[in-house]
Amino acid sequence: MRPAFTRLFAIVRQLAGKGPDDETVRYCCMSIVGQFLFFLYARPVLKRLFGKASFKAEEIAAIAEHITLFSLHAIRGLKG
To answer: Could you state, in chain order, the average pLDDT of each consecutive group of 10 residues for the chain (80 residues)?
Structure first.
């Protein structure tokens, strides 16, 4: 897990620039991972809310795209 997180940290650091401190960059990384984990562990909630607990390949791609765009906007917002 550490190599993957280290790589994610490096990517987020590059996107965020020199402004945010390392703690803020770590929080951004944890937020990104948390978005993916939500869809994994919240299946019972998703089933109750939307009637489904699994996703087709195209839905997974759309979720990944959303998380990417959402996270990029947040990270870029840190630049001020």
So the answer is: 96 94 96 94 92 89 96 89
Task: Yes or no: say if 32 and 12 are a contact pair by the CB < 8 Å rule.
Answer: yes
Question: Within the chain, what is the greatest distance between any pair of CA atoms?
Answer: 44
DSSP string of the chain, one letter each residue: -HHHHHHHHHHHHHHH-SSS-HHHHHHHHHHHHHHHHHHHH-HHHHHHHHS-S---HHHHHHHHHHHHHHHHHHHHHTT-
Task: Record the pTM.
Answer: 0.86
Domain ranges for the chain: 2-77
